Amino acid sequence: MGRQSELINRASLTADEAILVHDRSDIFYLSGYTGEGVLLVSEGVCAVVTDFRYAEQAERESPDYVLSLTDSVNTRYKRVSALLQAAGAAKLRYQEDTVTVKELERMREGLPLTQLHHVGNVIEKMREIKDPGELSALRKAADITSKAFAYMLTFIREGLAEKEIALELQHHILLLGADSLAFPSIVAAGANGSLPHATPSAYRVRKGDMVTLDFGAKVEGYCSDMTRTVAVGSPGEEMRRVYQTVFEAQQMAEKALQAGKIARDVDAVARAFIEGMGYVGRFGHGLGHSLGIDIHENPRLSVSCEDQVREGHLFTVEPGVYLPGLGGVRIENTCIVGGAGAEPITCGEKELIIL
After folding, report:
1. Is the CB of residue 212 less than 8 Å from the CB of residue 250?
2. How far, rounded to the nearest angstrom, does the alpha carbon of residue 190 sit from its chain's CA centroid?
3. Contact call for residues 314 and 334 (beta carbons, < 8 A)
């Protein structure tokens, strides 16, 4: 019951209060449960509220929680009401960033005697620092991702469509043992590389094209994230210069990622170098983001993030330069922040590879 107790302590939950968790990732983090439903956490009772379809799954995945089953008569908030009564709780905190307006109306109708309040970002803050079990899963996901990249170096060639490359990449990630993809893979070749979140298309790779691959695996509920840009045949001088700029910026930023630094200052290392090389306005996204159960988590390495980097944080370090009509380059590692700096857990050559 470690994470439930930590949540109760961090939220300063009193005996007459409970927290209702709707966010699926937070439910998994707190209980291990991956099905549909909601989670109730209080000093008096901790319960999974779901229906018959998920009963066996909930019992198996979250044995430390009481199982409360809904049906056509005993609806979700009737069950929550009964649990609150049993726990002696008259106040309920809910996740304002997750609950829709319509769902909030249902809560008010189903819990008319319960005082509803926001819970804030307390669970999100708990999830920022990864524990040893989480880091183990993240390393497994990163290892699969790294092996998938090594395989793709033997597969990518002139004439293949972006869609064909993406399908092969995603298939190989699963063959290597991933439970699922962390997100739909990005494959962007030639001029399409100027789109940071390009959707794989029917465009076929030509000699001299840069090809950007952004992909990740999910293992035991945790994500990896990796980007590499390779060339198929010799690229032009401008794209070589872009590549070298991004490569050096990524190296600098990874070295600068240390506990005690302010996140925006790490971003500034890469951004200043890229702009100094003449690519002002061509690096339009943040340097990186945290990840774990979700592919994008807080804190962020961005111009606006004032959070302090801490040991146990996980970040991507992914500078890029994007030139409309010509192409783009992004290089990304996932890194664990430790006492001695940032440890990349995604592997693979970062210097320019020409296939």
Report:
1. no
2. 27
3. yes
Closest by Cα among 308, 298, 299 to 261: 308
- Distance CA(206)–CA(201), nearest Å, equals 14
The answer to whether 330 touches 230, Cβ cutoff 8 Å, is no
Q: Which residues are paired to 18 by β-bridges?
A: 42, 92
pTM over 0.70: yes
Contact 332, 344 (CB under 8 A): no
pLDDT at 1: 53
Residues 6+ apart with CB under 8 A from 81: 110, 111, 114
Question: Rounded to an integer, what is the distance from CA 354 to the centroid of its chain?
Answer: 30
Mean pLDDT by runs of 10 across the 355 residues of the chain is 90 95 98 97 96 97 96 94 94 96 95 93 97 97 98 98 98 98 98 97 98 98 98 97 98 98 98 98 97 98 97 97 98 96 95 97
Report in angstroms the alpha-carbon separations of 349 from 320, 321, 354.
Answer: 16, 19, 11
